Amino acid sequence: MSRLHRESHRTSRAGWLRAAVLGANDGIISTASLILGVASAASGRGEVLLAGLAGWVAGAMSMAAGEYVSVSSQSDTEHADLARERRELAEDPASEAKELAQIYVTRGLTRELAQQVAEQLMAHDALSAHARDELGISEFTTARPVQAALTSAATFSVGAAAPLLLVLAAPESRMVPVVAVGSILGLALLGVAGARTGGADALKPAIRVVLWGALAMALTAGIGLLAGKAV
Fold first, then answer.
1. Which of 26, 148, 187, 218 could form a disulfide with 67 if both were Cys (CB 3.0 to 4.6 A apart)?
2. Domain total for the chain?
3. Quick one: pLDDT at residue 224?
4. Are residues 23 and 156 in contact, defined by beta-carbon separation less than 8 angstroms?
């Protein structure tokens, strides 16, 4: 007796995975950079923690708002395209069937088979067929603004917490190197985890996120050092 082979593709994770990796990455980099900049200016632990906490809250809210606005724009565009497609299907279904069939022809089907496939799919659910094959909109790629906003804010908070914990754990005289090294290691682990979750090779994402993170932290630490000397 045959059984249907059910597959779980990682494409379904694309929406929340992108927001999660972006949020955690930004949480570590922005908070660690802020901490290093303030600490390099010869500030005490209390001032560094206050700056880090302020950056944490502001960053989490900024990530949530930014993700919600940007993904909402994508969602608005998708809904507008679907409304237009729904109207065209109601006004001229024959032309829409030819348009769908032509898409299948360009993908390798014979014209006769493409026409049959288009007719059967439109008889089942015309709007879904056009949304998927003409517009590229599917359940895996559709925009989810609230999910993206909450994921980004939550993962930013998790990422931002790591440098703050390092500030609390490190001796005040060694705060800068401990936060820098710990944050770089955290970024490397984040790159590996994101790649593994998405089913990609881990080395390149880890190197990429570490390089950009180290650059951001080095620049802010340098600015903080110069500002401290100037003051």
1. 148
2. 1
3. 82
4. yes
